[in-house]
Structures are given as structure tokens and as C-alpha cells.
Amino acid sequence: MDKTILKTERLLLREMGDKDFPALCRMLQDPAVMYAYEHAFSDEEAWEWLRRQQERYARDGMGLWAAVEKSSGKMVGQCGLTWQDRGQGDLVMEVGYLLEKAVWHRGYATEAAQACRNYAFQKLGQREVFSIIRDNNLPSQEVARRNGMEIRGQFIKHYYGIDMPHLIFSVRRKAEDEEFLH
Hints:
alpha+beta, 5-stranded antiparallel sheet, 5 helices, 34% strand
């Protein structure tokens, strides 16, 4: 049975299993989707990605979850919460999202990212959540802004032999949300 974590108006977010590998490859092996990573993934890299998420589920109780369209039952992306280094040697909770190109511009990334932000605040008690986004990834930056985030800093990630400038976005829990938690 799939472990559903969150439901939004149009999406289910659930843990990924091995059966999701073909859908995962539709994203990870599409150069248009993976442009911010500078390369599409091989099968081996896609399996490593899936295993990393499964390890996160077991260790952290979270990770990137399959974003499944309720109307079709089809996995159309990933969105979730992971611990990430923001370039200062400390880990922060990040809302991450990656959708297959066929569903871009439908608002799915924003819908899922907002649900993950709320989950981090309300269920996990986080005071601040982040999205760490490559400086040339303007669509993801717009999703972060629609998620209430502002730029808090920047740093260079070294990945795949390339220096990649990244912007650090975050949103802080509002004072009225503090009262809700007590």
C-alpha cells in the first residue's frame, strides 16, 4: 500500500516505490526538466535518486514524494521536504519540487510546495523552511515566491564539475501560526 503523506486539491503526495521508476525517469532523463542540473540522469543515477529518497523516508520520515494527479492517478512530479546544506555547513529543511514537462504551467508545483510548507510548519514544527534554487531557474524561483518565500542569501554549489550559483529562499512561520501550535 502506498504511504500517502499529503493531499491537495488536485494532487496526492506519497512515498515513491520501485514501481515509480519509469515515471521518475520521465523527469530525471528529460534534458528540459534537468537543465538546472546541467545533465539528464542515466538509469543508474535515477536509481540512486530513488534509493536516496527511500533512505530519507526511513531515516527522516520525509523526502521528495511522488506527486500523483488525482484525476488520472499518474505520477507527474516530485515534491517534498529534505535536509539540505545552504552553503554554510548547516542543514535546513528545504521544500523541493520537480515536475515532468507535460504538466508545467498548471500550478502543480505551487500547489504541492505550499502543502509541503504548511506540513513543515504545522506537523513538523519548523519555524522556517527554505528552497535552494539555481540562479538561472526562474520558474522555480517564481514558485518559491508564490510559496511566500524571499531571497535570504546565495552561494555556489559545485556539482558535476561546474560552479552553480544558487539563491537561498525562505519563508518564516507567522506569529499567529505559533499560537496554533501551542
